[in-house]
């Protein structure tokens, strides 16, 4: 059983009637409903909760954290960001969705200004092509996922070269985007997945949910031994040199 | 249940009494005994069998193929190599062990003369360091695996830059070696793992067996949809240009 | 001064009047005219010449080989392919253009059936986006190169994960493609660049020529010492174990 | 002509007579003397200077910045770190040496706690093996560089998987280390090179200086066009959907 915590800033759904009508249970609620299964247990957390719902206890009991944010990245407390950061380095998986590319945690883990990309809201068609058909994150997906309407994100996306490139998107208006990328950070695995603008019902799409569920299984910790650091005694006898 | 076929050329164990005394059931037998568990079912195949034990039927029923060869790479039939090659591209995992680096299948999949490396048989200590502690292949392993006596393999190892570098070995005589490397090829995943010279009881080492079992789980197919190729109709309407 | 040899099978330009009218000096001639400068000296070679124009002498005097082929990959002699292969491993740069993806040399160096991809001839617009703005191959190029009409190549392109992904193409008909990818093989560097169907004047485009010239400079040999391989004496004293 | 600025915290050489006797002109002075040539012009900067010697004007006139620090990482002003960071993203090369792995700028660019590694001062032999013989940073180096006495750095080194792995070190005491690694960040290139503890005359070693000079040439900016970001008009007409 993989323990997932879905974090959502949960503001659009409260402030915007259109978004509320699409996601009456919140974006986190839609994803939670879509992920719950025999192998995955889900809880949710939101910005307004104490400690944003991400207490030490909750994070220590989380295998994979999913992150959706957009309007209020700056309102996320630096201490909580640090806490999530340390948990990722210690093995917790992290899945960053859509506008979460500009979150403090993603920028901190990647080291580049990941908030920088091209964007446009124009009800465009997106076609998410599978680039690495060997990757478990693409399991069960055909050659591409097509979304009738989505926000456009275009290159250049200001990320480091990914460890693995799983998806690349085509957009109607003429742009491409690295839509599915993975990174290792310490013992933790990070997956960024592009789709999911708040004004579209993307998180009800069964293929999108399948990718997120695949991502959860891929990013779950590997029970790897934690490395040690610092001053170390030699393992072999060292020759004394004159 | 992951279905594993362990292929061994099975010559040293027959021709050399010392090797026979170490591996009375063959190297394949030792690995098979070490891998068998609730999640993994194992069968074996050897050079001398018809079709080297790798019939279409057997390969189609194999999730992960493990390969050990040394003396007789050239005796492996090109048609069987082609068959294994196509199965890997179609999703079968492949784990190549030790001197299997010079096998036809590894050379063909990697595109470089992977038979080229430095080597020495001198009962040296090897220390296999974990480089990527996020990788599932390193799960359950401490900071390193120490083998009291092994054959030395040294850089430069004539492989392409790996997709992921999991282990690097230190050798008593002064060399280093990329001991655990992974590659994707089509829908298939490939893991090369260095240790296992025939004159040492390496394949009884519980940590070595753990790595191989981890490799089996990592390399098992992902149920990804097979890509299609060739002439394609447009998905969007194309503007007629004058 | 970097010594470049441009190899072209030179068949379309002879057999097809339309191609002949676009490339009266051959595709090799157009590229040669576009590359010649103070830093680069160019010679050409074609399929019909003895040894396809790629004698030992010529290859040993070549820093970077550019390859264009389409109709007659199978007519390229295996011995010449082996010769080119060995020169690449020894440090000669290789730039493979467009339909050269299906050449024997590219397939051999990469280890996958690189002839496999999607394609379509429909006078489509191609937009080649810069993905890695730090890469010298993209120097002097804006955010993208636009080609009014080109042949479409679409994913999945059956290549190994590239060492570096420099360009990704958008096509009018709805596909994307990894249009600029690099690999290291031994001491040699390999660059694949997608555009250049014979029925379009792509190799007169100044940005396309700039990318090829950048690629020449990037792929030129680095004067690196050749590695040695084989049995090696220890560099350190090895403890005798009981 | 590549313009290099060598930054050194310049404290050991002032406070420690042994270090002063090895580097009477400072570590920056030794490297500057070793790099100066027809193609490279060098200036230096140190912690004690106003703005640490890294004014906007100086940085804007710098192609490649070399960084050595150890005792006083925390005394480097955050504003200067931000300035260097932005210059790297805009194309300035950065070479981080030895204990500079714990500098603010390296940690910020890489996104992991790069201060974490194993270490030991025990006059150990280090052997720096060339792993990628195609890489221009290894040009002119044999199979390895041997340093009679150096500080040991051992894995796990808490860095992201590098874009390119150029060197791996062997240490007498039994450890290995990824000694030469490269990264792209925006338009800038970053090279970390391990050797150079202040108590050894490493920066007079001609091979070490050769690698640093190679690194300078590799990391020099590529005249690439700066990407643009933010809201973008469509390049193609978007179908209005009902």
TrEMBL record, chains A, B, C, D:
InterPro entries: Class_I_gatase-like (IPR029062), ThuA-like (IPR029010), Trehalose_catabolism_ThuA_prok (IPR009381). It comes from the Bacteria. Pfam families: ThuA. Residues 4-219 form the ThuA-like domain. This is Trehalose utilization protein ThuA. It comes from Paenibacillus montanisoli.
């Amino acid at each position: 059983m993989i323990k997932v915590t879905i974090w959502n800033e949960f503001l659009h759904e409260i402030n915007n009637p259109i978004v509320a009508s699409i996601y009456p249970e919140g974006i986190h609620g839609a994803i939670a409903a879509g992920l719950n299964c025999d192998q995955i247990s889900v809880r949710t957390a939101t910005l307004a909760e104490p400690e944003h719902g991400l207490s030490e206890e909750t994070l220590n009991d989380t295998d994979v954290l999913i992150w959706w944010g957009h309007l209020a990245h700056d309102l996320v407390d630096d201490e909580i960001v640090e806490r999530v950061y340390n948990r990722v380095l210690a093995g917790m998986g992290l899945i960053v969705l859509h506008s979460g590319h500009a979150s403090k945690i993603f920028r901190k883990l990647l080291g580049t200004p990941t908030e920088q990309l091209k964007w446009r809201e124009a009800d465009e068609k997106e076609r998410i092509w599978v680039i690495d058909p060997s990757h478990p994150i693409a399991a069960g997906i055909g050659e591409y996922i097509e979304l009738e309407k989505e926000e456009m994100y275009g290159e250049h996306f200001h990320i480091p070269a990914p460890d693995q490139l799983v998806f690349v998107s085509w957009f109607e208006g003429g742009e491409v985007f690295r839509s599915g990328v993975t990174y290792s950070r310490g013992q933790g695995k990070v997956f960024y997945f592009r789709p999911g603008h708040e004004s579209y019902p993307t998180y009800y799409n069964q293929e999108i949910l399948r990718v997120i569920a695949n991502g959860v299984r891929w990013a779950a910790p590997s029970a790897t031994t934690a490395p040690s650091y610092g001053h170390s005694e030699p393992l072999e006898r060292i020759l004394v040199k004159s």
